[in-house]
Design goal:
Two copies of one chain form a homodimer. The first copy, chain A, has two domains: 118 residues, Response regulator (Rossmann fold, 3-Layer(aba) Sandwich), CATH 3.40.50.2300; 97 residues, Arc Repressor Mutant, subunit A, CATH 1.10.10.10. Chain A contains eight helices and eleven strands. The first copy, chain A, has a five-stranded parallel sheet, with helices on both faces. Chain A has 225 residues and is an alpha/beta fold. At the A-B interface, helix 4 and helix 5 of A face helix 4 and helix 5 of B. Chain A binds a DNA duplex (30 and 30 nucleotides) through helix 6 and helix 8.
Chain lengths: 225, 225
DNA sequence: GGTAAACTGAAAGCAACCTTAAATTTCTGA
DNA sequence: TCAGAAATTTAAGGTTGCTTTCAGTTTACC
């Protein structure tokens, strides 16, 4: 998670860096609006923390220019200006959140998490080995390659990716995918596991669906020999 | 744009309704947390405005339960509680913005626009592949060519352009375009997807509406062979 | 080596989806 | 207000490809 801080007060910028780096973020700081705008437009950041009052290009202008350039990185605007007018101007300039100084560091972190959460809500996926199951597009993804799953294939895959390396019985899969009272038989599961295995190898995944006699299936990462 | 207000003070709820309806939003209000949670989970709203202090289920609990149910509708939390702790709790419960009463109506509108903007519901246009959906004129644009959409066609198109390559179930389209309590059937969606496909090819778009059996529809850019 | 479990491929069945066209409702301009 | 156009709904029939079935083969374990 890369965060860019645009803040001319070095002391505050530095303490923010320390705080966020301590929380595991990858942080960069710049100390004026011009530079901030240039960095922000690289589009490589997951979040911008932007001060309003800066010499030269101020925060509102930076936000407006970043948005005009169709860069949609979330912006957390941070400022001593606490007037309603200022907050409105900030939000309308393209900011996603307006936080007034002085602020509580826990509140800042909660804001950051809220913004990143929304950012990440776009793609919901489960990963195992080098492979991801995308819940939004119902596809298996491995590096460049990806392959779409049918509805039933997806249901089975989701159960397996949930259980990961823990065993999942055929009865459990039957009950949850076909329904407890359906007249589906265990061979259905076998056929669908076959489908999934084919698709996993097709995209070059290192994930294997291992069957354990009488106990069911679980995922494993293929070891190189 | 459908907004759900969850607020037990009827006076405030009603004045919010009036304000937002005046701005062209489609607003519904409910007056307790239980009902609010149920309505919110329908997943048919573009935004929730949620009061914290309510008898029974409070705003924090509603937010938490809605998020637990994997419902990602943006939440604007609105409350008289102004303490830092409260703001942190609200954000961590799943809110996207925390606004303290009393608030300026222009600030509220700025927040709403900021949240909807991030949601992907741009005010001007939404693009996918070589094609744009103009929200002002409700037309599909591809290079020189453009074609006008009817009201329902536009509603369906907007949902698809919002979801982009993520699956959108027919159920969800039905609920959000025809209303969850209408007696519309899935064939309506099929017919309208047919209309949109015809119009997309008519303007030479490289965007395809792909159907995934049992899971719904999503957009894809046609690959050259 | 025998047995039970698991796997595979091919073909049939069927639900989901698409298309079309006509009927109905809503909108629009004179 | 009314006629005509546009939009929406309804319904039937065609098509697709997911799902199921099943028989034959392979694998694992005793």
């Amino acid at each position: 998670m890369k965060i860019l801080i645009i803040e001319d007060e070095r002391l505050l910028a530095d303490s923010l860096c320390t705080l966020l780096e301590g929380k595991g973020f990858d942080v960069e700081a710049v100390y004026d609006g011009e530079t901030g705008r240039e960095y922000a437009m690289l589009g490589i950041y997951d979040l911008l923390i932007l001060d309003v009052m800066m010499p030269g290009l101020d925060g509102y202008q930076v936000a407006r220019q970043v948005r005009t350039a169709r860069c949609s990185t979330p912006i957390l605007m941070l400022t001593a200006k606490s007037g309603v007018e200022d907050r409105i101007e900030g939000l309308n300039a393209g900011a996603d959140y307006y936080l007034t100084k002085p602020f509580d560091s826990r509140e800042l972190l909660a804001c950051i998490h809220a913004l990143l959460r929304r950012q990440g809500a776009q793609v919901d996926e489960m990963t195992f080995g080098n492979t991801a199951l995308d819940l939004g597009t119902s596809t298996l993804i491995c590096g460049e390659k990806s392959i779409r799953l049918s509805a039933k294939e997806f249901d089975v895959a989701r159960l397996l990716f949930q259980s990961r390396d823990r065993n999942l019985s055929k009865e459990a899969i039957l009950a949850r995918v076909w329904g407890y009272d359906s007249n589906a038989v265990e061979n259905h599961v076998e056929v669908y596991v076959g489908f999934l295995r084919k698709k996993l190898t097709a995209i070059g995944s290192d994930v294997r669906i291992v069957s354990v006699r009488r106990l069911g299936y679980h995922l494993e990462v293929l070891m190189e020999c």
